[in-house]
Give the backbone structure.
Amino acid sequence: MATYILRRALGVLVVMFAVVSGMFLLLHVSPVSPVNQLAPQIAADPVARAAFEHAHGLDRPLVVQYGDYLGGLLTGDMGTSLYDGSDVADQVGRALPVSLELGFLAALLAGIPAVLLGTWSALRQGRTVDHVTRVVTVVAMSLPGYWLAVLLLVSVDDPDYLPSAGGFVRFAEDPVRNVQVLLLPALVLGLGAFAMVTRSLRGGLVEAYASDHVAFARAMGSSRTQVLRRVALRGAVVPTLTVAGVLIGGLLSGTVLVENVFQIPGLGQLMVTAFQRQDYQLALGGCVATAAIFLLLNLVVDLLYLVVDPRTRQGLARA
Amino acid sequence: MTPGPWWARTRTTGGADPAHAGPSRRGFLGMTAALALGGTGLLTACSGGDSGARVADRHKDGVLRIGVAAAPSNLNPLDSGAEVTRWIAEAVMESLYAYDDQLNSVPLLADGEPQISADQLTWTIRLKTGITWHNGAPFTADDVVATLVHMLDLSAGSEWITYMLGYVQSFEKADDRTVRIVLAKPYGLLRSHLTNLPVTHKDFVTRKDTMMGTGPYKLDTYVPGQSFTMSRFDAYHGGQFRAPFADVPGGAAFKGIEYTVFTDGNTRAISLKQGKIDLITSPAQTTVQKLKEAKELAVTSTVAPLDVLTYVLVAREPFSDENFRKAVAHSMDRDGVLQRVYGGRGTPGQGPIGPGELGHDQALSVYPATPDLAKAKEFLAKATTAKRDFTLTVGASQTARDIAQVLVAGWAKIGLNVRIEQLAGGPWSNKWLSRDYDMLMNTFSSGFTSGPANYLTLAPASSTNVLACGYKNPEVDKAIDTVWQATDPAERTAALRTVDRILAEDAVIFPPLYPELVVAQRTELSPVNPAQLKICRLAPHTLRFTG
Amino acid sequence: MPERPRLRARHLRHLGVAGWTGLVLVLLYLLVATVGRLHGSPTELVTLGPEAPSAAHPFGTDHLGRDLLARTAEGAWTSLWICLTSVGFAVVVGTAIGMTAGYRYGGRLDTLLMRGVETVQALPQFIFVMFVIGLMGTGDMHFGPVTVGNGLRVALAIGVGFVPYFARVARGATVVEMREDYVVNLRGLGVPAREIVFREVLVNVLPPVLGQAFLAMAIAVFAEGGLSFLGLGVPAPHPTLGNLVADAGGQILGDAWWYATLPGTVLVLGILGFNLLGEAYGERDRNRGTRFARSPRGGGTPAVPAVPPKATVTEETT
């Protein structure tokens, strides 16, 4: 099992390396140049352009720049923004906690009702609740978060709940206000996750209930709640974990749009701004951070399988 | 349960049920409202309250709070004359000369008028003594020279360089409190630049992450893109602001000023209405009516040097054809832009110089406010160019996009097919400089770079300028030279009028309108100084809380 | 995708409630797109400022006084076009990659291709698409005589983001198919590999791939809207559903409820419709007994995390 974990972790590192290399090279061969974004006196003057490129090391061979970037990355240096000269690692470091908090809050707001509704509809399989749940979840999955967010902006008129840029308060400054301004974005963001978890949990439970284990436990005289707690719920966790990777991806993508509407200074907003300004050092930093988190969370999910599902463990032991 | 759409449960949208999705949607809406977004009603319920009480309570800390629409990423006011930077820099930075309330240029950091040599090529400026920077260092000639040199450094990328190229030769420090500027040719306009260019400490000229000034407020902290916090600078020299508040030590009323960025127009308006902030800049057009209706708020709309920069590339087809240009100018939907995009706050455009700017000619009337399609078609028929399409390149703002869309819809009526291209600041300017455009347009406020005038707007019409659009007219060239060189204001104004008229008549520069500057404020704050608004400035350090 | 109508006709009976609802919603979306385009010009200024829905303007007018029904229709049409292009592109490229990898299952080419796919998937799909758009810049692109306009650029970016999903599904199905007795037999008979792949395997790989295509359509409509919303998609004045929603957000006070809600509702129609169709398709597959069962986790192919194909596609609709 240790070998498996090691192998997976190594795999993540390899993919991470490939991602960084791929993105770096693609960005540098793309026709987009950050110099075009500078003041016209520089951008349109070949001499000034060359001076700027030299000052920022953009005129060095690609291999050297690449080695430099990789080396920097290992020591936590992501370079400086080409737009305003600020430190990229610094900016990412400031934005990341905000996005993570938003994602966590969204997961929390999505998870609790999802577990309740998923269980409830599985217990009432084929009844009204079950049908309603199915409709609700498929619609919830189809509502684009950015649209909901716009509707919220239009209809909520208490600025205490609208974090649009200046209204945003960091957790360290004022935890209560912080959660207050993140409430609406987290609800919007969590809606899709809520739908997916509900569906997979319901599916897993229904399947588990039909299984021999449950039939056996029932035959041995366990009550319905006991069965639910001991056997079925555990069986339902596995399919839910299976969608977790997708969920995480959805939450990460969703933050980009939701942060944009609500003007939350998180990683997603940072990346959008970077792309709009063609500040590719910053954009690259944001993408690298996102990829790292995505891969890491997926790794955690994979390891959780081992904890939750003994069958997987056995399978590994045999392999 | 009557599951109306959940947004209908809040204030405005009674009975708006988009019933397309049928029963499943209805069911969902009810459920979602209960499950996930049930908080909305709660939120609305706990909003409201007495905004006046909130303001009174908030004002106890003596901090003025201003809501702006955007934040600069580069804080260095030496690099940019854009209002996003300068609105924040206003109370922090000072210049050698400043505008008084009659908009005359009076000494601020300079000690008296500049001494100009007989050949008009050497300006000698004495500096005031006893002025300290926010970091405690004394203000000296080194700082002024460093500021000027930075501005003229090509690789520094300062916007001001465009004004100086070809005229300014060198800057020298004569002694600790005297600066000498040597010119290549007479340059009367230099006085205007010295009145608008902020001066910073010599160690801070290249810093983009902070502001170091001599003004009544110092920048303490900021969160990029979000907020800027300033506190009163107790060692302030007094400057021109002692007069209005002689009773207040340091010459400023507030303990601090805080700028908060609200990019969304609605949020900006609501925050003001609820008393979270005291003043907002550029309220969204759609919110102005609501703000006007609120009795605790005041909306000020002022004629100011605001421009919609509009250039056509005369050097290239189709705008090389005068008849084509006139056809475009006559079919321009000026009134449409004014009403639809600016809510009627402004004046339909003629030539490049607007009513808030030096040299404006009120009697000039070449083009109708509503398109004269018949006349436009006549010109189009006379045009030798066969092209009936062009690209309109606008800046990245929503306003610029809306202006473009209204105009394009208007031009479609005479059979012109116009493509809209929207570019961010840098690439937009590059099109301008590299002369790679058909028609360029963007919003611009020139108050921070040229006071009650706009000189940069005219530059492309001069055949020798780096921004030249390909228009060649000796009379215009001569008049623009006069504008740049004259020291006599009357002479400059006359030349400006000439340029304005010719450029309008020849359809070289014909903006759709001259917008007004709009700000909205709480009535618990003294009214914004109308004289300073005329040069785009809020001058927050001259305000105080009332009541 | 010319296959779609044929497939639909063949399996109409199996659609079920969800499928029928989905079909109706997609048809409604198409109805708005067609009727609205006949209704008027999407760029003409017909009223002075925003007006509430009326007989003359069923969806009301926008902040510049343009007919919103015409704009919504034009937007729906553009979105649909972009989504069909992107999904079509992804189906073709993804299937090709997936089948090649599946055919060489366990080989070096398989490992290489799947590593590539995995690398692309290391970024959440929407962020990957943003990255691709960032690479291509905002203007038109020129490849010699070929000009890639803005719509096509967006379509390609979204399409590239989908390739991994289709590649995985196609690979999984190919692997299962290649193990079937008939393939082994055909091989034994000396039928050339190319013939087996194109004549026999492809036919059996396509159904699961096309099933995913419906769900991919839902995501594409969402992603296109999102990109336009961020200002990275199709530029003004050309309306797309995302543009309209973004404009509404930037412009509107509570009074003009129709501006944000009506175009958004059409957007939801499209996403929901395709989601339901995809679900119905999946349901049908399940009822028949899926041929490509979930790949065994942790067994044999370390390069491919065993995410069941069903789950791979519901991403992004947050």
In short: Chain C has eleven helices and two strands. Residues 1-9, 289-318 of chain C have pLDDT under 50 and may be disordered. The interface with chain B takes residues 21, 25, 28, 43-45, 48-49, 63-66, 138-139, 235-237, 247, 249-258, 261-262, 265-266, 268-269, 272 of chain C (CB under 8 Å).
